[in-house]
Amino acid sequence: MAPARQNSAPPRVVVAALRGGSGKTTLTLGLIQALADRGLAVAPFKKGPDYIDPFWLSEAAGAPCRNLDPYLMGRDQVRRSFAWHAAGYAAAVIEGNRGLFDGMDAAGSYSSAELAKMLSAPVVLALDCSMASRTVAAVALGCQRFDPELNLAGFILNPVGNPRQEGVVRAAVEQATGLPVLGAVPRLKLDLPERHMGLVPPQEHARVAEALHQAARSVAGHVDLDAVWSLMNQAPAWSGEGPPEGLLPPEPPQGPPVRIAVVRDAAFGFYYAENLEALTNFGAELVFCSALSDRKLPQADALYLGGGFPETHARSLAANQSFRDSLRQAAREGLPIYAECGGLMYLGRNLIVDNEPHAMAGVLPLDFAMKRRPQGHGYTQCEVDGENPFWPVGYQFKAHEFHYSEPRPLPDAELCFAYRVIRGKGVTGDRGGLVYRRVLGTYHHVHALGSPGWAPGLVDTARNQ
């Protein structure tokens, strides 16, 4: 391979598909791992609000995966974040989400296609060939003509059933579109187990390295990597306009850093890399701990309790009573606590899984019951209208939610809320951000680059407690 250009926007590609659940993540993992195996430093990115796929993309690249979300961040922030975090890498691979043109409305707003245009990145589209042949070419041609401004550069057939089908589909697609078929991948049996929110995170997977190398070998054996690399190098060079807003303070923080505890384990792992980075940049020392194995909360000036899978670890979380007790005592004593989704559920009295209650921290006066279908899913918008430890009244922010739990307030519970939910679901009705003393529990996940006031707000609260 030719040496990479040295600029803020390196050779890059967006890997997209016709729908979600089409094997796009496996292809992206394999592509990143295969490029890394050739000695290239790859910057991984994921389109949209997602925690689990970025875990795997980070493992494959050996570098933090960054999220690029046009809805949460806006065009300028997307471009700034990409250029800032891709600088110094030989290549960048961006995994799209859902279908290529799927967005929030009929215009496809905030879709993977729109992201690719923002980044001036070529798109490689995975085409589902299940029980079809020439019809796949019609789909490919439709995608090519649907948006003339999109740089649709090539296709990967996935999966193909046999060499005869591959030959027919490959010829039909190339004749119809004039674009190359870069590979044809058979149906793979990879060791990448799934559950209700997607892939099982790698921290719960016993053979992470082998699973990644298996994906890389599969992609490398069925995809023309040299052709993909050539397409990536055709992406135009451009320089960023400086760091994205909300990542760095305008002036270096003064005084000693504040200590912010972060619960990070198999139950709570949903943290955007940019969120943790922003907290550090604004003056925090992050102290990681586990609600599963640590006996008590560490000494800290604030606590950041992210989302995750408390429902799959409910029995173990309940068994660690000393940690639950220490967290409840810290909350009563006024420790600032910011808790998202799974973290909110952990702050409740009980987490009910399959009709069995499991004792949680007991900070907030409500139970949470797991349901079979999502109770909140999608982008959200909120307006702060109540006093709380972290957000100024009047502040509006965008976020996202994805949860299967149903909140059940205890009888006669007095609930105080921080904001009105303009779009999405609240804890009760349109009320979100449950407040208790200096605790805020929310179903809404924020991204530091989409809500630039979030990181300085959390750090300032920790400093001034």
Tell me what you see in this structure.
By secondary structure, the chain is of the alpha/beta class. The chain folds into two domains: about 10-235, Rossmann fold; about 260-465, Rossmann fold (3-Layer(aba) Sandwich). Helices cover about 30% and strands about 25% of the residues. It has helices at about 25-35, 50-60, 70-75, 75-85, 110-120, 135-145, 165-175, 210-220, 225-235, 275-280, 315-320, 320-330, 340-345, 455-465; strands at about 10-15, 40-45, 65-70, 90-95, 125, 150-160, 180-185, 195, 200, 260-265, 270, 285-290, 300-305, 305-310, 335-340, 350-355, 355-360, 365-370, 375-385, 395-405, 405-410, 415-425, 430-435, 440. It has a nine-stranded mixed sheet. Strands 3-2-4-1-5-6-7 form a seven-stranded parallel sheet, with helices on both faces. A four-stranded mixed sheet has the order 17-16-18-21. α1 (about 25-35) crosses α8.
